[in-house]
Each structure stands twice: as structure tokens, then as C-alpha cells.
Design brief:
It contains 16 helices and no strands. It is an all-alpha fold. The protein has one domain. The longest helix has 41 residues.
């Protein structure tokens, strides 16, 4: 990630306004990232900070290299050049949102399990369109074999979540650390929800419960895993999207489809799938599925319109010059 990345329109705003807006963005992304099925990366796109955030992550990782080589001057220069007007307010607001909302969301998932699964099922089902919409269209016809990767990803995710979808009764540090490493990558990918990955692993309720109860041992382990995940995967993800974009996105979509197994509204305590209910119960579940899909659909429409508006404004500015 280049340190001299393209500035976003928000960076031309006065510093105080930029910081306040970034805090609001961070709070919204933090709240949404707690909801299985809604991607924090998608929300970052909607609020116009996705590319700037990826650049900031890349620049922050770039500070580590001079440290390892003992190049103090470069460390100081790169550290000062970081996008602090984004990192500090957005990061602090995200942390606040996580601690403020973890309790209510845990109670919702625990007390209204079928409703929660129905809602999240609709959200994830519609979110599958996000990675597919980012694919270079001609590749889908010139490389038809990529659909085999879609099917393979779906099958593997379906089988995998069959073993892990049941809630974990007792957390242990290695599992929490590894889950955080994997889940944090979803924050950088539009359409993939970190909380959904935790849910698919059976860790959503216990991890959110630990956050709500301020279990600092679990929280510290999760944060350490998340930081290592960002350091290891940020550049790998960027490389995959740059060099093998279609393969990565189609496979990702397949994994999301197969992982819907974890959110099937009708399942027993051991995560075995059951036939749909009938009558009023079925109607209510389908209503919540529709609500979840509509929420994500509205977000995607808003993101596309904002992106179109930003592109139009950029063209007008270029013509004015």
C-alpha cells in the first residue's frame, strides 16, 4: 500500500470536521460489524472511507519494517505521516461501539434465537451479491472454471459449518486467538461479515458475552489475534484482489453461500438442520428473512448511489479545471 495514496474528499475538509465525521463513520462500522451478515467493509464503502482505511492499514503496517531494521529516522517520518485524523477518531469510536452494543446484541441472539437466525440469514443471502458484483464480468465467460471454485467453496463451507455451527460452551485462548485472526479479515472485505464468521464457528454469543461482561482475558486474546490477522492478511488480501480478483471474489461468494447453513432458522441445539416450520411461525421467520435482506439491499443501493455521485462530482471537477 503506497504511503502517498490518493486523498479522499473527506481529507480536504477542516481537520476538526474530518475527525468528527470519521468518529461517526467508525461508530457506524463498529455497530454494524457486530451484526452477523452485515459487512463492516460494505459500510466503509457506503460512508466513503473504504480505500482511505485500507491505505491507512497498509501505511501502519509499513511502519513495522523500519523498526525491524533499526532505521529510526524512517520510523519517525512514517509514524508522523500516518492518517491520524482517520485512525484515532474512527478507531476510538469503533471500540466504544463494540463495548456499548455487545450486551444488547448478545441478549437478542440468545433470547430470540430463531428470529436472529432468520434476520441474519436474509442479510447474508443478499450480501452474496457484493463479491459477485465486484468481479470483472468478461472473466465469468472467458474463465468458466471459476464457477467450480464457487461450488467447491460452498460445499466446503456447508460441511465445515455443520461441524462448528453449534455454540461453543467454553472458550479457550487458542480458539479465540485463531477466530480473531480469521474474523478480522472480513472487516477489510466488502460483503463478508466478521461476526458472521464467528457465528459460523459457534463463537459469536460467547465472545460477545465476554465483551459485555468485560472479560479482559478473552478480550485481550481476541485483540492480539485480530492485530496479527491484520498484519498477516492485509497485504495478502490486497495481492489476491489485485492479481487474482475474479478467483478470490467468486470463491468468497461460494464460501458465503455454503456458510448460510449456520444461519438456517430451523435447527436443534446441536445445529442439526430441521424442516421449516408451518403456519404463523413460518410466516414470521420468512418476514424476518425479508427484513434482513431489505436492510442489506438498501445499504447496497445507497453505496452505489453515493459512488455514482462521487464519480460524477469528480468528473465535473476535472472538467472545471
Amino acid at each position: 500500500m503506497s504511503q502517498h495514496h490518493r486523498q479522499s474528499p473527506a481529507q480536504s475538509a477542516p481537520p476538526v470536521i474530518d475527525a468528527v465525521v470519521n468518529a461517526l463513520r467508525g461508530f457506524l462500522i463498529g455497530v454494524v460489524e457486530l451484526i452477523p451478515g452485515v459487512s463492516g467493509g460494505t459500510v466503509a464503502l457506503v460512508v466513503g472511507v473504504y480505500e482511505r482505511a485500507l491505505a491507512a492499514i497498509g501505511d501502519a503496517i509499513g511502519v513495522v519494517r523500519p523498526v525491524a531494521k533499526g532505521e529510526g529516522v524512517q520510523v519517525s517520518a512514517r509514524f508522523r505521516a500516518l492518517d491520524w485524523l482517520l485512525i484515532l477518531p474512527a478507531g476510538a469510536a469503533m471500540v466504544f461501539a463494540v463495548f456499548a452494543m455487545a450486551g444488547p446484541l448478545t441478549a437478542f441472539v440468545t433470547d430470540y434465537e430463531q428470529t436472529a437466525r432468520s434476520l441474519f440469514f436474509g442479510m447474508v443471502a443478499v450480501s452474496v451479491s457484493v463479491p459477485l458484483s465486484m468481479v470483472y464480468r468478461p472473466d465469468l465467460t472467458s474463465k468458466p472454471w471459476v464457477w467450480l471454485l464457487f461450488v467447491l467453496g460452498a460445499v466446503l463451507a456447508f460441511i465445515g459449518t455443520g461441524f462448528t455451527a453449534a455454540p461453543v460452551e467454553q472458550l479457550n485462548a487458542p480458539i479465540v486467538f485463531f477466530a480473531a485472526m480469521v474474523a478480522v479479515t472480513a472487516l477489510m472485505l466488502p460483503g463478508l461479515s466478521g461476526s458472521f464468521l464467528l457465528l459460523a464457528l459457534g463463537l459469536y454469543a460467547p465472545v460477545m458475552g465476554a465483551v459485555a461482561e468485560r472479560d479482559w482475558a478473552v478480550i485481550g486474546t481476541f485483540v492480539a489475534g485480530a492485530l496479527l490477522g491484520v498484519a498477516l492478511f492485509a497485504r495478502v488480501l490486497r495481492w489476491l484482489l489485485d492479481k487474482h480478483r475474479t478467483v478470490a471474489l467468486v470463491t468468497m461468494a461460494g464460501l458465503m453461500v455454503g456458510s448460510l447453513r449456520a444461519l438456517w432458522p430451523w435447527q436443534d441445539a446441536d445445529a442439526n438442520l430441521l424442516l421449516p416450520a408451518s403456519g404463523a411461525e413460518l410466516a414470521i421467520s420468512l418476514l424476518w428473512v425479508a427484513v434482513g435482506g431489505a436492510v442489506v439491499g438498501l445499504m447496497l443501493v445507497a453505496e452505489r448511489r453515493l459512488r455514482h455521485f462521487s464519480g460524477t462530482r469528480h468528473v465535473i471537477a476535472e472538467e472545471a479545471h
